[in-house]
Write a structure and sequence with these properties.
Layout: H1 20-48, H2 63-89, H3 102-129, H4 139-170, H5 185-203, H6 231-234, E1 245-247, E2 250-252, H7 254-259, E3 263-270, E4 276-285, H8 286-292, E5 301-305, E6 314-317, H9 319-322, E7 328-333, E8 336-337, E9 347-349, E10 362-367
Transmembrane segments: 26-48, 68-90, 111-130, 142-160, 187-211
GO molecular function: oxidoreductase activity
Domain Oxidoreductase molybdopterin-binding: 240-367
Length: 368
């Protein structure tokens, strides 16, 4: 007669891959990834929705390209790290009693919140990179709000587990060797690090040009400058003879813009989804346009598009950027006249600024 089958217990899991030393080390890596992702995410949100005290520099020109690339890359690296972290601690699900005290219940509740918020952030971030939104909520608002929930739960978890973490990270005694054929603690850590590195390498090419040939999931910007929103979807068409650019109280035709002194600069477009691409832009300096219109140097302006109902049809260009000589109303890209999808007849291109704020089909610069 077979003995009765009992449910698994925490003590049944003896593999060193479930030990506190593994959990603490992967938790340290995961904390670094989450910290980078949270900090750079706050910067991106601040640039797009600035508080009165927030300022963002226009130089170096690649600054936003770097910070947003770090944001997406650290989020990608966190996915295998989170899965490995959960593997290392899942035997605790079988610990009995399930709840030993009120503090223990609060600790378990905070872990549940942390796991749920972390998966929400990482999965919605992946869908955003793929420009796929199978939900009804507005991604930026939800992603930003849940980031605070995840970070708060992480800080609570660290505070509760700090003595265990400190002891695990400083322990010098060797653990028993695993059974023959079983994965060792060192092997598991190396595998986890390799998985995180492979995930980063597969995606980071969207930001790092010299890795695009080997970055199989980051090649969206490998050829030219991608187009997130096409003119047809935006409901934009132009007639050269009737189009006018209004700057303050002045108006300029397309021919007048072309007759002005032109500036050429190589500048990147860096998207919130993590990809970026550089192009050579030629156009009129915004500072020169404001000067011709009698607008004080360094004035902030609102940039309006011919698009009627897009979320970013109107953006604010702060004085730091209007005064920068590399902030252009571009008329040409890579030596050719802008196509309609790239913003013809003119588009904004400013250094160190998210792609969603590089307004296309510009029709007006209104002084604020």
């Amino acid at each position: 007669m077979k003995p009765p089958v009992r449910p698994p217990q925490e003590t049944d899991f003896t593999s060193p891959t479930h030990g506190p030393r593994v959990s603490a080390r992967i938790g340290l890596w995961l904390g670094i990834a989450f910290g980078l992702c949270f900090a750079t995410g706050l910067l991106s949100h601040g640039i797009q929705h600035p508080a009165a005290w927030f300022t963002w520099p226009s130089r170096p020109v690649n600054l936003y390209r770097i910070t947003q690339g770090v944001h997406v890359t650290s989020g990608v690296a966190a996915i295998p790290l989170l899965l490995a972290k959960l593997w290392s601690v899942y035997p605790k699900l079988f610990g009995r009693p399930v709840v030993r005290s009120v503090p223990h219940a609060l600790e378990r509740g905070s872990i549940f919140v942390l796991i749920a918020a972390s998966f929400f952030e990482l999965l919605t971030g992946v869908f955003n990179v793929a420009q796929n939104y199978p939900w009804a909520f507005f991604f930026p608002t939800a992603h930003y709000a849940v980031a605070y929930v995840a970070t708060g739960a992480l800080l609570v978890h660290i505070a509760v587990k700090l003595p265990v973490i400190r002891e695990a990270l400083t322990r010098t005694t060797e653990e028993p060797k695993p059974a023959t054929g079983a994965l060792s603690r060192r092997g598991f850590l190396l595998t986890t690090g390799g998985a995180a590195g492979a995930a980063v390498l597969a995606t980071v090419g969207g930001t790092v040009p010299w890795l695009r040939d080997v970055s199989v999931l980051g090649s969206r910007s490998a050829t030219g400058v991608p187009v997130n929103r096409r003119a047809e979807a935006a409901g934009v068409s132009t007639a050269d003879s009737t189009w006018r650019l209004r700057v303050g109280d002045a108006e300029f035709t397309l021919d007048e813009l072309r007759a002005m002194p032109q500036t050429t600069a190589e500048l990147p477009i860096a998207c919130v989804e993590g990809w970026s691409a550089s192009a050579t832009w030629t156009g009129v300096r915004v500072a020169d346009l404001l000067d011709r219109a009698g607008v004080p140097a360094g004035s902030a302006v609102r940039v309006d598009s011919l698009e009627k109902d897009g979320l970013y049809r109107s953006t604010t260009l702060p004085g730091t950027h209007t005064a920068d000589p590399l902030t252009l109303l571009a008329l040409r890209m890579d030596g050719a006249t802008l196509t309609l999808d790239h913003g013809y007849p003119c588009r904004l291109i400013a250094p160190s600024r998210p792609g969603v704020l590089q307004t296309k089909w510009v029709s007006r610069l209104e002084v604020l």
